[in-house]
Structures are given as C-alpha cells and as structure tokens.
Amino acid sequence: MKFIPFIKKNRAVDYTAATELARTLADSFRLSPGAPQWEIKGLIANLGETLKTESTVVIGVSKFHYLKLKKALSMVFKAELFEAVSVKSDVLFADEDAHELQYCFIEGSKVFKSVDGLYSGYGIQGEEQKIIVLPLNEERYKPMLAEVRRFVFGEEAKTQFTLEQQAKKRVSICSLVSAVLALASVVLSLGVGFYFIR
Questions:
Q1: pTM score, two decimals?
Q2: Which of 20, 67, 167, 173 is 20 to 30 A from 88 in CA distance terms?
Q3: Is 142 helix (H, G, I), strand (E, B) or coil?
Q4: What is the Cα–Cα distance from 135 to 133, expressed in whole angstroms?
C-alpha cells in the first residue's frame, strides 16, 4: 500500500497532518510513503505510475485540494458523480453554503463518512486496484478507519472485538435453546404426570 500526500507546498500544517495520517495507517497496514504532490497534474501522473506496482493507494488530501481532487478523479475515470443523501443532510446541517462536491461522490465509490459529513473519505475500486482518499484531519479520518480496513481487506477481516461478540452471541443462542428444551421437557413431564394421576 502506497501513501501519497496531496498538500499545499509551503503549508507546514499539511506536512504535519500527512505525517500523522501515514503513521496512523502504518499501525494497520503495510505502508510505504510516497513523495508529496502539490499540483493535480503531478498527482495524477504519480498515481498512474504507482498503480503499476501497487494494488492499493491512499491519497491524504488537504482541505485546499479536496474538491479539486474529487472533480479530477471523476474526469480521469470518466465516471458520473452521485449525491450521497445521508452525507448531504449532514453537510448542509454543518454548512448550508457548502459546495455540492462535499456530498457528491464518484459513481460506484464507497463513502467513508466523517462525523459532520464535510470532507468525507471515499474508496474507488477497480478490478484489482483500490484508491482511497482520506482528509488530512485527524478528527475526520479517525472514525473512517474501521470502514477503510473493511474496504481494503473485505468483510472477512474481523477485529478481535467482532469475533468476541460473535462468540458471545453463539453462547447466548445455545443457552436460549437449552432453556427452551428444558422448559419443554418440564411441560411434557407435567402433562404426562397429570395423565397418569387421573
């Protein structure tokens, strides 16, 4: 998995945010960092080269480039944009003057919704390759990480918590079945006993 920051050239805050996101992703994924990109042309060229050797690319995008990147990717993939209804309502609640590209996403993409909908992440999947776009804002991307993990590894990637919850559910179902069978045997024995008493 390759990480490409798409940031403003002389903005130290963007470099720091990109480093933090790369570190966070490295905890869950085998990640190799790429050179920062400042212009859309350079990013698209870099993305094309990277996808020749990598199956998954994560683009960490600054607020400044977020809308531009979404529009450019829709043109590169010749894909229509669709309105994500649940994201739209949150975005307009947070900022009624928000640009429509805040809640429009590339057709067929997986949306990773942020807390308020603004600068939500998304994943684009081809036959064998995936491109993931995440905002360079910790408060926004942290809630998306579990969904990103499922997008990368598929539904079979279960967390320890999920496996424990499934085991508890199996135990409670077995307990319920045992209780029902015990109750049925008591009811049947009462019926049989009553029959023999008469």
A1: 0.76
A2: 20
A3: helix
A4: 7
